[in-house]
Amino acid sequence: MGEPDNEAETPERLRARTLSSVGRALFDAGRYEKALAAFQEAARQDPDFLEARVSQANTLLMLRRYDEALGVCEDVIRRDPEYNRTYTAKANVLHRRGEPAAALEYYRKGLALAPGDSAANYNFACYWALEGNEKECEEHLRRALEADPTHNSKAATDPDFDAVRDREWFQRLVAFKK
């Protein structure tokens, strides 16, 4: 299942996409309350637009509203158990809440559904860096960067990678190439 193609999108879906784009820009700027409002409105416009709901969960995570974020994830899983990014979002919440074993289960579910997903691999690399497993961190970061090289700049400054930032393999992976 997952998100449908862009073909013949409804006006509600187009509004939801636009609102989600605004929400992502606000999220990237660290304006989480405003981002949350944009994602909530996107979900209100089109309740089946799962990307907005997962973005809402990720924003609630940044606001440390873990229980609400988990509730959103559970709702999306009920709607579409094949939408892989929901499992990554839930894993992120569980990990930040101090439940690494439960988080691992959900990272694995998300990657099983979409092994090449750049965001899922990036988040799994963060998990492994924080858990101290450099081999797994390197493997998933490599997969993330191969799928989407724009993660390079994010990885270069992401505090989740502080423990491995000085490693040769990390420097090699995040180096910008022409």
SSE layout and pairing:
Blueprint: H1 11-28, H2 32-45, H3 50-62, H4 66-79, H5 84-96, H6 100-113, H7 118-131, H8 134-147, H9 151-157, H10 168-174
Helix pairs in contact: 1-2, 1-3, 2-3, 3-4, 3-5, 4-5, 5-6, 5-7, 6-7, 7-8, 8-10
CATH architectural group of the largest domain: Alpha Horseshoe
H/E series: HHHHHHHHHH
Helical stretch tally: 10
Task: Name the assembly state.
Answer: single chain
| Residue fraction in strands | under 5%
CATH uppermost class of the largest domain: Mainly Alpha
Write down the overall geometry. globular
Give the termini separation: 36 Å
Question: What's the story with the biggest beta sheet?
Answer: none
Compute the CA-based radius of gyration: 16 Å
Would you count the extended β strands for me? Answer: 0
Would you identify the regions where 5 or more consecutive residues have pLDDT less than 50? none
Which fold name is given in CATH as the topology of the largest domain?
Serine Threonine Protein Phosphatase 5, Tetratricopeptide repeat
Mean pLDDT: 92
Helical amount: over 70%
Question: In CATH, what is the homologous superfamily of the largest domain?
Answer: Tetratricopeptide repeat domain
Question: What does this 3D model show about the protein?
Answer:
The protein is mainly alpha-helical and 178 residues long. It has two domains: 10-99, Alpha Horseshoe (Serine Threonine Protein Phosphatase 5, Tetratricopeptide repeat), CATH 1.25.40.10; 115-178, no CATH class. The protein is built from ten helices and no strands. It has helices spanning 11-28, 32-45, 50-62, 66-79, 84-96, 100-113, 118-131, 134-147, 151-157, 168-174. α1 (11-28) runs parallel beside α3 and α7 packs antiparallel against α8 (134-147). It is globular, with a radius of gyration of 16 Å. The relative contact order is 0.08.
